[in-house]
């Protein structure tokens, strides 16, 4: 079975997927295509409708193989992402982990996974991207590809836009996001619609860290994992350099 799956493959009854994988995809499809409770991210809904998304499945996020499996998915996706469509993203579902109960625990797991992935990256960090997450132009990179990373968890309640029955990541290449910036009138027209949808979708106001990449005062990592309230980490929990040093010893 391939690492990355298209929606047609997941929906194929002949494909012997485990029950939890089929359920995770079914719940995702229902959430992102709901015509009444419209998911706020319009580009994501378009990507789903057009079949540009690719899906992967990983053992529970605390399993010893989770970091390696996630790395394999990202590596495979990055090799072919330009052929998947203009709105493509990699959507990763993790098997349930009942011992993780609150948002802060999921936040810790999230950053640990990204740190593990970065530790396994044999490609040097891109020279045009700062290695310090406290810089406005920093973003997560793997194999010389830049990504915006979105996380949803079962523990989120107020921010339904970040809530999902399974721990889930969505990784969007920077080149996809740059295509929106290349059409400023279109982007300017969609932005207020996204904000309006977000206000209707979530019980909490838009998180204060939702800002434009590279803008003054923006730190990209604070948008990857939004807490259920308005708080955010005082420092980035991403420990690429530390894990690299440990791996080399």
Automatic annotation (TrEMBL):
Pfam families: YqcI_YcgG. PANTHER family: YCGG FAMILY PROTEIN, YQCI_YCGG FAMILY PROTEIN. This is YqcI/YcgG family protein. It comes from Paenibacillus albidus.
């Amino acid at each position: 079975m391939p690492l990355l799956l298209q929606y047609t493959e997941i929906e194929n009854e002949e494909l012997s997927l485990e029950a939890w994988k089929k359920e995770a995809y079914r719940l995702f499809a229902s959430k992102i295509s709901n015509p009444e409770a419209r998911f706020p991210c319009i580009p994501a809904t378009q990507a789903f409708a057009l079949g540009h998304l690719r899906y992967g499945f990983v053992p529970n996020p605390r399993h010893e193989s989770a970091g390696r499996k996630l790395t394999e998915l990202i590596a495979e996706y990055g090799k072919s992402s330009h052929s998947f469509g203009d709105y493509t993203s990699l959507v990763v579902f993790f098997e349930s982990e009942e011992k993780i109960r609150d948002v802060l625990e999921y936040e810790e797991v999230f950053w640990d996974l990204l740190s593990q992935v970065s530790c396994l990256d044999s490609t040097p960090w891109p020279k045009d991207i700062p290695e310090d997450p406290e810089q406005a132009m920093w973003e997560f990179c793997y194999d010389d590809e830049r990504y915006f990373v979105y996380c949803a968890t079962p523990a989120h309640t107020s921010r339904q836009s970040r809530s999902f029955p399974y721990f889930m990541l969505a990784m969007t290449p920077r080149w996809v996001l740059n295509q929106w910036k290349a059409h400023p009138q279109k982007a300017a027209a969609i932005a207020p619609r996204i904000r309006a949808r977000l206000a209707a979708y979530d019980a909490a106001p838009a998180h204060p860290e939702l800002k434009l990449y590279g803008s003054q005062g923006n730190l990209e990592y604070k948008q990857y994992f939004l807490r259920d309230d308005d708080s955010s980490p005082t420092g980035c929990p991403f420990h690429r350099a530390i894990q690299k040093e440990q791996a080399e010893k």
